[in-house]
């Protein structure tokens, strides 16, 4: 053979080897294990029966509890059929009978219409439906032939920016094989740890050896269901003995796993949609608490519970029962999770006051934590307000995740206010929206700053922002990662259980002290974005102080209920995506309307109270038209007073006959004239009376003209351009 022919033959042989390698490559153990684990998953539901008969009727959800129907009547919809439209919601209904073949088994409904939905069963809200939740337990065990009236209310958007067309993806009854279900999750949990990126190599080899032995009896191609089931049982027994009952490769430390669902009152949705979201989220939470007896759930915000009570009263009673049973934690003491940069000290106090009052009245519990995981920084004055309100702890997450310049590395610390008050504070190193995947938990523990000192950390899990909370996958892992080789030990904990345990360890530890504000190096624009909201908030804070003072001093019945309602409008608008301006445009318009309502209440109460007080003032014996000027501040005051008055020759005097400087100001647009005069030495929380007399006095007045581009009086004329710059 020539050298040329030999070279070609070598090339051909190499190509053959490469092609054979690609088509007959060696499958790794991890791949083999996953194939067998997927075979377990495929056998969890041995009986599946399609469910037909759904009908649909679309509508738009224009405001809370208000549907404007787009379809005049119901129409049939089949699996695989699309529905939707811009900002569309839909009702789906179906009368169904559970197949007799499911008698004695766990009977589930597999259903997903797309979008974000709430399934009601026999007229009662039952379970949320979203991309993470399409399988709903209906009966355990089923008696067979049960009848169900099913209805679902679904919104086209699960999160922002989605396609406006959705599909009825699945509709069927399924009977669960509990043993196969548990076997699958045992192997899946172990496989997840085995394939972790940064797992200790010795632990990886230990888990891999146990998995290799345990998974051997499983033949993914076994056609006989009983044989497959028997082999799977043998495999599970080996796996549990080798991995779940061993003390090998136990790690130190403890992660308190807290199931929760951060749910924004407004954000990429309106308040009305928030109310629907809380129905979906908490219906699911209740069902999972029923199915997982060791699981605990935490939820914040008194406003959320009030909305639940008004819109989903039966659900609210179920939550109260779970709180009483020690399964559900009301975490956080505030009305909402407010912005913590822009509101006043009094607003902080009112957030806690109204939040605590509602929670104590409805649930009989007293939260001890200021819980604001998602706020955009925190004012330095907060520690003393938190402590004086009877709270012990403070928890936030944002700086630990979002700081863009100076990473926050103090996860457990004393936060000290300007007066020296300290509050034990937690800023976990990872997001409050977490999973129970071992690699995510390992990332949290690796970033945790206090492993060597405190050795305990709070880890939140559950889908959030748009709600949803923990799902079945998370809770199955929660059961299995308590003490698993290579995984930091975990415990299902309420927030305050975790904080109490951490506080006990802090007593013997020297932790850092932070003596300043907590400044978030992101979202800086929230201090100025949509400035009208900031202005209206401050106007309300000032107004309601005056309204309460004068209502208290007047002879009228104290309007406690009206002030309470007005304050709650203000407090609700202080939510951390409301006041900062981090929301969609429809939310902005709703917030402005809420401020109008709050200001209307406050101004009316103030006017009525001052009128009643003025009516009791003795305006004799000085001649002229009396004007009573009130001072709501805590110190005597020199200022100006203004009132509408016709432009005539007059002078203003006090009770001693002293003449007060005054002037007229004309509104260029309305033509209305305002009289402005100096009011001197008006006493703290009191009043002083002045009299307007006809005829020019010794102190002459000056008129003033005010327009968008001009300020002018007898002595000065200033003109402005459109940019507000002085041009002459």
Structure, explained:
There is one protein chain. The chain is an alpha+beta fold and 728 residues long. The chain has 6 domains: 47-176, Jelly Rolls (Sandwich); 180-244, no CATH class; 255-514, 7-stranded beta/alpha barrel, CATH 3.20.110.10; 526-615, Glycoside hydrolase family 38, central domain (Substrate Binding Domain Of Dnak, Chain:A, Domain 2), CATH 1.20.1270.50; 625-697, Golgi alpha-mannosidase II (Immunoglobulin-like); 701-727, no CATH class. Helices cover 36% and strands 24% of the residues. The protein has 17 helices and 33 strands. Strand 28 and strand 29 (673-682) form a beta hairpin. The longest helix is centred in the last third of the chain and has 30 residues, at 585-614. The model has no long low-confidence stretch (mean pLDDT 93).
Furnish the topology, listing elements before pairings.
Blueprint: H1 3-23, H2 29-42, E1 47-50, E2 55-63, E3 66-69, E4 75-76, E5 82-84, E6 89-97, E7 106-112, E8 116-121, E9 124-129, E10 135-139, E11 147-155, E12 165-167, E13 170-176, H3 178-194, H4 201-215, H5 225-244, E14 254-260, H6 271-291, E15 297-299, H7 302-311, H8 313-324, E16 328-330, H9 345-363, E17 369-371, H10 382-388, E18 393-395, H11 398-402, E19 412-416, E20 422-426, H12 438-447, E21 456-461, H13 472-480, E22 490-492, H14 495-506, E23 513-514, H15 531-553, H16 560-573, H17 585-614, E24 625-631, E25 637-644, E26 650-653, E27 659-660, E28 662-667, E29 673-682, E30 686-694, E31 702-706, E32 710-713, E33 717-719
Helix pairs in contact: 2-3, 3-4, 3-5, 4-5, 6-8, 7-8, 15-16, 15-17, 16-17
């Amino acid at each position: 053979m020539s050298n040329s022919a030999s070279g070609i033959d070598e090339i051909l042989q190499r190509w053959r080897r490469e092609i054979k390698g690609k088509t007959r490559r060696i499958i790794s153990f991890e791949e083999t294990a996953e194939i067998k684990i997927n075979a377990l998953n495929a056998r969890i539901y041995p009986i599946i029966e399609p469910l037909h008969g759904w009908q649909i009727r679309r509508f738009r959800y224009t405001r809370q509890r208000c549907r404007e129907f787009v379809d005049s009547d119901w129409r049939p919809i089949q699996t695989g059929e699309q529905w939707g439209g811009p900002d569309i919601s839909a009702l789906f209904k179906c009368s169904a009978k559970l197949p007799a073949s499911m008698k004695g088994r766990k009977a589930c409904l597999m259903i997903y219409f797309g979008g974000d939905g709430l399934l009601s069963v026999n007229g009662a809200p039952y379970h949320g439906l979203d991309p993470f939740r399409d399988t709903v337990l209906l009966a355990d065990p089923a008696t067979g032939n049960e009848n169900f009236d099913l209805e679902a209310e679904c919104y086209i958007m699960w999160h922002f920016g989605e396609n406006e067309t959705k599909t009825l993806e699945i509709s069927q009854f399924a009977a669960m094989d509990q043993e196969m279900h548990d076997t699958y999750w045992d192997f899946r949990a172990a496989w997840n740890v085995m394939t972790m990126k940064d797992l200790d190599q010795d632990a990886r080899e230990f888990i891999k050896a146990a998995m290799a032995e345990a998974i051997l009896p499983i033949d993914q191609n076994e056609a006989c269901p009983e044989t497959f089931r028997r082999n799977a049982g043998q495999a599970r027994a080996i796996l549990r003995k080798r991995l779940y009952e061993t003390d090998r490769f136990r790690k130190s430390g403890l992660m308190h796993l807290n199931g929760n669902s951060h749910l924004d009152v407004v954000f990429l949705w309106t308040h009305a949609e928030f109310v629907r979201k809380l129905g979906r989220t908490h219906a699911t939470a209740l069902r999972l608490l029923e199915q997982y007896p060791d699981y605990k759930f935490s939820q914040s915000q008194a406003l959320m519970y009030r909305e639940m009570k008004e819109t989903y009263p039966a659900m609210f009673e179920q939550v109260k029962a779970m709180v009483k049973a020690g399964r559900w934690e009301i975490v956080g003491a505030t009305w909402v999770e407010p912005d913590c940069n822009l509101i006043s000290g009094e607003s902080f106090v009112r957030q806690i006051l109204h939040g605590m009052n509602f929670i104590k009245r409805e649930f009989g519990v007293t939260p001890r934590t200021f819980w604001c995981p998602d706020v955009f920084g925190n004012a330095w004055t907060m520690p003393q307000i938190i402590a004086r309100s009877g709270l012990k702890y403070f928890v936030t997450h944002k700086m630990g995740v979002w700081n863009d310049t100076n990473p926050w590395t103090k996860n457990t610390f004393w936060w000290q206010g300007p007066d020296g008050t300290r509050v034990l504070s937690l800023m976990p190193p990872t997001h409050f929206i977490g999973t129970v995947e071992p690699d995510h938990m390992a990332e949290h523990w690796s970033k945790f700053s206090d492993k060597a000192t405190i050795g305990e950390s709070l880890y939140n899990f559950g889908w959030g922002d748009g709600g949803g909370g923990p799902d079945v996958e998370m809770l199955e892992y929660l059961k299995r990662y308590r003490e698993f080789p290579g995984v930091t030990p975990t415990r299902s904990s309420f927030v305050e259980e975790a904080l109490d345990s951490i506080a006990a360890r802090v007593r013997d530890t020297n932790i850092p002290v932070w003596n300043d504000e907590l400044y978030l190096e992101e979202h800086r624009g929230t201090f100025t974005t949509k400035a009208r909201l900031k202005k209206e908030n401050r106007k309300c804070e000032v107004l309601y102080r005056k309204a309460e003072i004068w209502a208290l001093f007047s002879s009228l019945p104290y309007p406690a209920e009206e002030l309470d309602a007005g304050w709650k409008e203000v407090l609700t608008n202080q939510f951390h995506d409301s006041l900062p301006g981090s929301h969609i445009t429809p939310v902005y318009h709703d917030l402005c309307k809420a401020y109008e309502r709050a200001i209307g209440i406050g101004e009316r109460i103030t006017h009525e109270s001052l009128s009643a007080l003025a009516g009791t003032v003795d305006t004799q014996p000085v001649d002229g038209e009396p004007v009573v000027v009130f001072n709501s501040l805590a110190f005597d005051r020199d200022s100006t007073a203004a009132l509408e008055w016709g432009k005539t020759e007059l002078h203003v005097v006090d009770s001693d006959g002293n003449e007060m400087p005054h002037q007229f100001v004309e509104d260029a647009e309305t033509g209305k004239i305002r009289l402005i005069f100096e009011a001197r030495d008006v006493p703290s929380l009191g009043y002083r009376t002045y009299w307007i007399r006809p005829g020019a006095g010794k102190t002459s007045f000056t008129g003033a003209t005010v327009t968008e581009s001009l300020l002018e009086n007898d002595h000065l004329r200033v003109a402005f351009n459109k940019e507000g710059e002085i041009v002459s």
